[in-house]
Design a protein that fits this description.
Helices cover 71% and strands 0% of the residues. The model has no long low-confidence stretch (mean pLDDT 91). By secondary structure, it is mainly α.
């Protein structure tokens, strides 16, 4: 079930009304049932996978809690990790691994046909697998107690607002909120609706409109060159951000309607002054997961400079692989890791913050680098990505022709370009203000006339400028 579908427009009000009518002791049941129904709307067979992962992690944590021997605790943790990651590997990475092995063997003149399986990638499997892993690891470390109520735990793993595309919640943050009694809070619910509206604006008005131009080029990039490639790449930079952060806003707003607060997953990432800062503002829950469960266990920055560089690269290569079974994602993670290593060497911590023109130049540099790196992310193959990079500036010696041909190739006229730029400008203003204030909370302080003028204008923007037709999936559903 898509957030931007008619089905969800019916589903959410029904869940909302029943949730607040039910006594507290039964609400977890509604969360569990509605979450599984929400997930089954994609493919009922996939429910068995999330149920299997939930049972394995629940049992693993209980056994770890009861066991006194550290060695046995480690064995249980390893066994649970193998089972859960094995499911993830089979459905997401088996074909990729098979093809990669045969390609490597072919370099040594060993010719084999790769074994490929016709598998459907279950929606959100990477997200809920990491959520269960963090739970069991935290129980093993003694950071949280094992949850004894299976239903409560299952509701925590499957909580529908964040089930399919995050944020990846930690046990200590979300599970106590599901278990705690809640009283309806009008201010919290109102904030949630406004956050959802902002998320829908980013998804329907910006991301989905830009997606059509990105698809024109990146579906067959070798038919294009020059400014068309630049436009499509920059548009994807905004598309991926508005699509994914839009989902996170809708998820966060939906949770607030039920009295639950999810972790903030994005904090104006394109206003970062370094790639390190970018990753503290982009997909924050995933960045924190890799930091806590891979980077720090490897030694973090408490090691030699060479080892620290290795830790960064491994962490970001793993992050790239998490995103997809393709060398393009590994390359995307690798370039981010490599630039962080360079930053650590050339840009000491005390020089990573600045103001004025230096701030603008650094923000611009980070944005341009991110736009460049997204080329690997959006490309279907390394061959396509390298073609795009090589041909970005074809014919730039004739600037007028370069620009005109690019707009013509991508099918973007002046009127439509003005609309897209205006929407992106609204996004930029909101994100810039968000660096220092909570925009929605500040709006709530304004008088009724100002507030309702903003609400009406904003609603009209969504109605008139959103993509019409079948609801478009969110980009991160494929991960």
């Amino acid at each position: 079930m898509l957030f931007n579908s008619f089905a969800f427009a019916v589903f959410l009000p029904v869940v909302f009304i029943i949730y607040w009518l039910l006594p507290h002791k039964f609400r977890w049941i509604l969360i569990l049932v509605s979450s599984y129904y929400f997930y089954m709307s994609w493919n009922i067979k996939c429910v068995f996978l999330i149920l299997f992962t939930t049972i394995v992690s629940y049992a693993g944590a209980r056994f770890i809690e009861k066991e006194n021997s550290i060695k046995k605790k480690k064995r249980i943790l390893a066994g649970m990790a193998v089972l859960c990651l094995g499911v993830l590997f089979f459905f997401k990475y088996f074909n990729f691994a098979s093809k990669s092995v045969t390609d490597i063997l072919s370099l040594f003149t060993i010719q084999l046909n790769p074994i490929t399986l016709n598998l459907l990638l279950p929606a959100g499997i990477s997200f809920y697998t990491f959520q269960t892993l963090s739970y069991v690891i935290d129980v093993y470390k003694g950071d949280v107690p094992a949850e004894h109520h299976f239903g409560m735990y299952a509701a925590f793993i499957s909580f529908f607002p964040q089930l399919v595309a995050g944020p990846i919640e930690r046990t200590s943050h979300l599970l106590p909120q599901i278990k705690a009694p809640h009283t309806f809070n009008y201010i919290q619910a109102s904030y949630g609706l406004k956050l959802m509206a902002w998320g829908y604006f980013k998804k329907l008005v910006i991301a989905d409109n830009l997606a059509q131009y990105v698809s024109i080029v990146y579906d067959s990039p070798k038919q294009y060159h020059g400014f068309a490639l630049v436009l499509a790449s920059v548009f994807f930079t905004f598309q991926i951000y508005c699509d994914f952060s839009g989902y996170s806003d809708i998820a966060g707003g939906t949770a607030k309607l039920l009295g639950i607060n999810l972790k903030i997953n994005f904090k104006s990432p394109y206003f970062s002054q370094s790639i390190k800062e970018f990753w503290s503002r982009w997909h924050i829950s995933l960045s924190a997961w890799f930091r806590d469960y891979i980077y720090i266990p490897l030694g973090g920055n408490r090691v030699s400079r060479i080892r620290h560089s290795f830790n960064l690269l491994i962490t970001f290569l793993a992050s790239g692989l998490w995103h997809g079974a393709n060398w393009t994602f590994i390359a995307w993670g690798g370039v981010h890791g490599a630039v962080q290593v360079i930053e650590h060497i050339l840009l000491p911590e005390k020089y990573q913050k600045s103001t004025g023109i230096i701030w603008f130049l650094r923000v611009s540099a980070v944005f341009l680098f991110c736009s460049f790196a997204w080329i690997f992310f959006v490309s279907d193959s390394m061959d396509d990505a390298l073609y795009v990079i090589r041909h970005l500036f074809d014919n730039i010696a004739s600037p007028v022709t370069y620009l005109h041909q690019g707009f013509q190739d991508i099918g973007l006229d002046k009127g439509r370009m003005l609309i897209e730029l205006t929407m992106i400008l609204l996004l930029a203003v909101y994100d810039f203000l968000s660096l220092n204030i909570d925009v929605i909370s500040e709006l709530n302080k304004k008088n009724t006339l100002i507030r309702w003028t903003v609400y009406i204008c904003f609603s009209l923007l969504i109605v008139f400028f959103s993509q019409k037709g079948a609801a478009a999936e969110f980009v991160y559903f494929q991960f």
